[in-house]
Write a structure and sequence with these properties.
Elements: H1 2-30, H2 32-65
Helix pairs in contact: 1-2
């Protein structure tokens, strides 16, 4: 019973992943410049998040030694 539910969940997840990939491809096809800007903005946001996280972590670790 549980394995069939897990198999159905896996199949649903696969279908949703394919639909999401198709949506992304269609959006890229319709507006490649806008999609490029969105991707660059997303990468910049992720980069600034990790830079901030590393900065705060290093400050925390330095404060442990004081």
């Amino acid at each position: 019973m549980i394995t069939s539910v897990l198999a159905q969940l896996k199949a649903i997840t696969r279908v949703l992943l394919y639909l999401f990939a198709a949506f992304i491809l269609i959006r890229l096809w319709q507006d490649p410049a806008g999609s490029g800007h969105a991707v660059v903005d997303f990468i910049n946001s992720v980069g600034s998040f990790f830079a901030s996280a590393v900065d705060k972590l290093s400050t925390f670790v330095r404060s442990l030694g004081d």
